[in-house]
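Hi everyone,

Forwarding the result from last night's run.
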Amino acid sequence: MHLLLGRAREAERDFIEADRLLGSSASDMHRAITAHNLGYVAALRGQVPLALTRYDEAEAGYVRHREVPGELWRDRCELLLAAGLTAEARRAAQRAVDAATARREPAELAEARLRLAQAALADGDPATAQTLADQAARALTRQRRTGWAALAHWTVVLACAAQDPDSVTEAGYRRAADRLERAGWPEAALQARLRAGQRATTRARAQQHLEPVSRARRSGTVWHRQLGWHAEALLRRGRGDRAGALRAVARGLDLADDHRATLGATDLRAAASAHVAELASTGLRLALDGGRPELVWRWAERTRAAALLHPPVHPPDDEDTEQALAELRTVVRERQDTATEGRAAPELARRQARLEERIRQAVRHTSGDGRGVRPDLDAGRLHTALDDRALVEFAECDGRLVAVVAVGGRFRLHRLGETAAVTRELHHLFHALRRMAAPGVDPAPGLRRRLEAAAARLDAQLLAPLSAELGDRDLVVVPTEQLHALPWGVLPTCAGRAFSVSPSATLWQRARSVPAGNGAVVLAAGPGLAHAEPEVKALADLRPGARVLAGDDARVADVLTAASGARLVHLAAHGRFRGDNPQFSAVDLADGPLTGYDLERLQHPPEVAVLSACETGAAAVLAGGELLGLAATLLSMGVRSVVAPVLQVPDAETAPLMLDLHRELLAGASVPAALAAAVARARAGSDADAATGAAFLCVGA
């Protein structure tokens, strides 16, 4: 009853008392139901780690008693959607649909289809979402469940708008909001009224829609209040109060920062930014309307890679997690061996999936310290840190790119053109680079010319318009979402120039202040690469006294122990980027993969990390501009500089590049300057040499 009346604290108190009274004599089923309800209460209160923990406890209890009820999968889907984990939410909703179908329960099936529609919409599949939501709406209407039918109809509206924004009018959003309010869906009603206000053609009608939403900023869940501040920003903008509107946007973003601080898992913190992506765009749009370059920089920076500003919360060093990580390494190695022999291993694949889920759950159960972290928006400190360098920070708003250049104590704003044109050239550039770098394949005639032509066109769109300010200075580049994958060294403006890429200006400044390492140099070679051990041995000749780990000595635990606090760590190994779960991106060592989860357990990160391994510089870019990947993980941990490729690279061509890099470092060059010199030599070589050099970036300071 407390839950139905919205009294989450009172409900939690009674469920905890029920669990105490049930005690050890109760069946698993009773304890599972109680844990399930406690998870639902935690989800209502926005306590994501606690809700996940309780849902996992409930699932374990249900499994011991009988099969897991579809209701748990629906509730888990709702939580995962709120956490921004859309792909996982979709899988949970599909399990709810499968359970309801197997039991032939039409009421459960209708709700499960609705959750699946919501997850498909959040996962970027509005056509599927529209079909599923329409099916759910018809079924719920037949069942005379008008409240749930209203939510299904709202999902249809959202799916239509995602495919054609002009297909839903102001009146359509207003009618949806009225239905949702009557049906008891307050957050959905707020969203509908906010959209009605955005579509309104007169200030008076916009105010009528937005004022009820604005009042939500004072109480309720964090996302209710965020919607309220968004509406307040739009109201203030309508009154011509741009400064007040920006203050309202900032208040909404502060809520997201504080919520992010309650989360321990890196992927949960990153996913939380999806909720405020539209609000952040409103702030950037307001800043661009004002036209002041420094203000535009502040708002481009305000939400850039905000999750990486939080140092990783070290997962619990419990025996179960350690065992799961060790077992995962064994299973991955066995799968690799069976693949080499040409044998299928479906059971190993299932074991790997179960182990990854076990590790992911353990980390997500960890809470953050609750201390919100804000970006450093002090322009004076930035200019002092830059010294004679130039910073170029890109941003995207309404399908167009802008760049803010910070140089010589001043900011300048450049409006660069449509994002779609850049996307087309990126496709051509990546196609040519991948073919040139493919091992054992002779590049097609003229491929380098096509690469250089695409790079020149991209340069003309991105950096050439800034050349008057950039001069021949060293560069710090802060990309926007689609530009994080760009191998910047292939652009003519960057060729031969020392530059580094950073997820944000704040992270670049923080990386510059990383203290020097303990002086140790660690060189490690993983298995299965013909040139990995020769590369490390050649580097050892350049660096007498370095600790060399190769063969059976290059185990994950030994490499992490040696890397702790080191001045420089160099890993030559197979690398893999996992787009489905970037925290399981890995570098292969003697006993299996070194993953992002392993790196986050390192108490004292090295000062500089060189990853001579495919795709280790790649990152998944989430809604809100958040990054997940090995290089991003290292940077968030406090590594000063990471040198890594964003593409697959052949190890035969990589070894000479790495030797040149280390020679330059030993001669006293900075990491960006050393990489620029090594890449310049590679460009003078074969197509494969040039493509390999272009794939490497210096990320950080």
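Residues 416 and 465 are 8 Å apart (CA to CA).

Cheers,
N.
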